[in-house]
């Protein structure tokens, strides 16, 4: 399929999947986001975003999309036009919503931004910069999970509390990318490192568990 994921896809109502065609940096592709129905049929959904990166739904079922090119998060209106939610977010990559509606945005430069319902942007925590992206996911208890691949042989997956306390959850990944939590609260991480690529379940204090071996994995969503 004509998709180019650099972060997690998003799943809407009725199992509809929303995926990006991000393109090379600065490339304006004809279709920014595709919609794939439960029957597997893919259709163009949205255009006009350069380097569409991460997708997430808020509590009202409204799709939001980040652009790593212009450092902006957009809201998709019912008529498929775009509204700026927040801008000047660096190299905006992963996005995720907390239970209170707060939007978290991962900047590849090393900052996690917190965006309130009014659009006010506040730096939340600072972590080491990434050479690829900054993927984020919200856990069941509203903790934020972060993956930020570097040139190190072993990269970290971080867990950030609602108060901004950071701790390392895992150092067992070579190139951690997409993150998602299941209904039980377990974290899943895709690893793209050669020789260990696949999808893993991660439980704190335990060795990671291989769920599916596969190469070139990026995003994951439930």
Describe this entry's structure for a reader.
The protein is mainly β and 222 residues long. It is built from no helices and 20 strands. It has a four-stranded antiparallel β-sheet with strand order 1-2-3-4, with no helix packed on it. The chain is globular, with a radius of gyration of 16 Å. The two termini are 20 Å apart.
Structure summarized in a few sentences:
The protein is mainly β and 222 residues long. The chain has no helices and 20 strands. The strands form 5 sheets. A 4-stranded antiparallel beta sheet has the order 1-2-3-4, with no helix packed on it.
Average pLDDT:
91
N-end to C-end Cα span: 20 Å
Molecular shape: globular
| Neighbour order of strands in the largest sheet | 1-2-3-4
The stretches of 5 or more residues where confidence is low (pLDDT under 50) are none
Q: Count the helices. How many?
A: 0
Helix/sheet category: mainly beta
Tell me the helix content: under 10%
Percentage of residues in DSSP E strands: over 45%
Q: Count all strands and give the number.
A: 20
What series of H and E elements makes up the topology? EEEEEEEEEEEEEEEEEEEE
Largest beta sheet, briefly?
A: 4 strands, antiparallel
- Which radius of gyration do the C-alpha atoms yield? 16 Å
Provide keyphrases for this structure.
four-stranded antiparallel sheet; mainly beta; 222 residues
């Amino acid at each position: 399929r004509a998709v180019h994921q650099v972060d997690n896809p998003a799943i809407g109502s009725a199992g509809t999947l929303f995926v990006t065609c991000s393109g090379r940096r600065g490339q304006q592709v004809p279709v920014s986001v595709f919609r794939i129905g439960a029957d597997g049929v893919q259709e163009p959904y949205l255009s006009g975003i350069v380097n569409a990166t991460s997708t997430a739904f808020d509590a009202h079922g409204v799709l939001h999309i980040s652009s790593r090119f212009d450092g902006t998060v957009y809201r998709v209106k019912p008529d498929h036009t775009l509204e700026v939610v927040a801008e000047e977010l660096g190299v905006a990559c992963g996005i995720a919503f907390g239970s209170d509606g707060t939007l978290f945005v991962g900047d590849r430069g090393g900052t996690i931004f917190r965006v309130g319902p009014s659009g006010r942007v506040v730096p939340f925590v600072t972590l080491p910069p990434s050479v690829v992206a900054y993927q984020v996911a919200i856990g069941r208890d509203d903790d934020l999970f972060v993956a930020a691949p570097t040139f190190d042989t072993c990269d970290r997956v971080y867990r950030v509390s609602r108060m901004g306390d950071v701790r390392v959850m895992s150092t067992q990944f070579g190139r951690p990318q997409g993150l998602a939590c299941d209904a039980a609260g377990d974290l899943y991480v895709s690893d793209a490192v050669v020789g260990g690529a696949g999808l893993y379940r991660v439980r704190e204090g335990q060795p990671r568990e291989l769920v599916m071996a596969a190469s070139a994995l990026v995003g994951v969503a439930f």
